[in-house]
Specification:
This protein folds into 2 domains: 149 residues, 3-Layer(aba) Sandwich (D-Maltodextrin-Binding Protein, domain 2), CATH 3.40.190; 91 residues, Periplasmic binding protein-like II (D-Maltodextrin-Binding Protein, domain 2). It is built from 10 helices and 10 strands. The longest helix has 17 residues. The mean pLDDT is 91.
Length: 267
């Protein structure tokens, strides 16, 4: 029995909906740990997991990416971003945290990155000198409720403006000992293709089936259509590979990685 894991965010629905077996849904950091420990065979996880530990095979042509504003990977802040003194991190995704580290370094900003203070996790807890990194469904909910109270630094948008390339947040990774990886990869590609062809049906089912937050009634078909069609990309082609390679090189430059592996181990 294939042990498969998937991030439990709305952005993953077009890549996993319709899978005909058990799936373990969790936050990216948890899935990365389980994949690394061989407790999962295949998982949709943060792209940084491959850069950190390039033992895996990448499912080619499939990713969660953006080619401009991503909407759901943002820093919420009040006032000018250059006046922020510290940013509370969401530890769920190493990719987003390290993307933020790179962009801050590229801008030459002196901003402390601190762990989230759960006792001050409400919007009221975000002081004028502090920002908060938000990812996934949490970012969507925060923007739905507090969009008029904050500015939002969209990391996907700034990456595109800075480097002219898409940014890759998540990949399907297959452990090296898994047999018949090509067959599994083909199935995941076909599943993605089918879901994108029937995206309106997927949106309807997503709104009626429930999400991790249990608050999908706050979303609309129009929002999800825009989110899936305009903010997200689900391919891993030449431009996405260039974007991920650029990110790897930047992580090395800013001492977040020892070495930038070439993206050659794909199936």
């Amino acid at each position: 029995m294939l042990r498969i894991g998937c991030v439990k965010y709305l952005n993953a629905r077009p890549l996993i909906h319709g899978w005909d077996g058990d799936v373990e849904f969790d936050h990216p950091s948890v899935l990365c740990n389980k994949l690394s420990a061989a407790e999962l065979d295949v998982a949709l996880v943060s792209s940084f997991e491959f850069l950190r530990n390039p033992i895996y095979r990448i499912v080619d042509d499939v990713s969660i990416s953006s080619d401009g504003p991503v909407y759901s990977v943002v820093v919420a802040h009040r006032g000018d971003i250059t006046r922020i003194e510290e940013i509370e991190l969401d530890p769920a995704s190493a990719t987003s945290v390290n993307l933020l580290r790179c962009l801050i370094a590229e801008l030459g900003l002196d901003i402390r990155l601190v762990k989230r203070n759960t006792e001050a996790s409400s919007a009221a807890g975000v002081a004028s000198y502090r920002g908060r990194l938000l990812i996934g469904d949490q970012a969507i909910r925060f923007r739905q409720h507090h969009g008029n109270e904050f500015c939002f630094w969209d990391l996907g948008e700034y990456w595109k403006k800075s480097f002219g390339l898409p940014f890759v947040y998540a990949l399907w990774l297959v452990r090296p000992e898994v047999a018949d990886a090509k067959r599994i990869a083909d199935h995941l590609r076909n599943l993605r293709n089918e879901n994108l062809v029937n995206l309106d049906d997927l949106i309807t089912q997503t709104l009626s089936a429930g999400t991790d937050s249990g608050r999908q009634n706050e979303l609309s078909p129009q929002f999800l259509s825009q989110y899936y069609r305009e903010h997200l990309r689900f391919r891993f082609a030449s431009e996405e590979k260039k974007g991920l390679q650029t990110f790897a090189d930047l992580c090395v430059y800013h001492a977040l990685l020892r070495k930038a592996e070439r993206l050659v181990n794909v199936v």
